[in-house]
Write a structure and sequence with these properties.
This protein is 45% helix and 13% strand. The chain is an alpha/beta fold. Helix 1 runs parallel beside helix 4.
Length: 151
């Protein structure tokens, strides 16, 4: 499961887009509290919740991390160097710099961390990831229409 807030939803979505073709049951949860509650209700021991939260932290991220832990899930926190309060619930904390060159923060380093995590997950899954990708990719191609190249 992956949760991202107002600003971090882009990184959470990228995580799901990269992992879903490699392994089953990858889900994105977001602003809709009914869907988030349903996903938490479906959470079991052994599941993993990836929670994204950067400065201007959201209490919802902390509540989700807490609920996931209570249901026996592992929590992976993607946050900034100042650490989201939800990091205290996490089994793993991954940080990225979000301070941008101007007045606005940047999500680019967080997406780079996501890409690295996805690469490591693919390596850990090994042949299972390749088999699933081989099964899913033709379906995606048919749904998307004519492919112009790539894998």
């Amino acid at each position: 499961f992956a949760y991202g807030g107002d600003y971090t939803s882009v990184a959470a979505q990228q995580l799901v887009l990269q992992l879903a073709p490699l392994r089953p049951r990858v889900r994105l949860t977001g602003a809709n509290s009914a869907l988030t509650a349903s996903n938490l209700g479906d959470t079991n021991s052994g599941d993993v919740w990836c929670v994204f939260d950067v400065r201007r932290y959201h209490e919802r991220a902390h509540a989700i991390a807490t609920a996931a832990k209570q249901r026996g899930a592992k929590v992976v926190m993607f946050t900034d160097g100042w650490l989201s309060p939800a990091a205290h619930e996490a089994d793993v904390v991954l940080t990225a710099t979000v301070a941008g060159p101007g007045a606005m923060d940047t999500i680019v380093p967080m997406v780079a961390v996501v890409e690295l995590v996805c690469t490591l997950a693919e390596q850990a899954l090994g042949a299972d990831a390749v088999s699933r990708l081989d099964a899913v990719e033709p379906i995606r191609t048919r749904l998307a229409g004519r492919s112009l190249g790539g894998r």
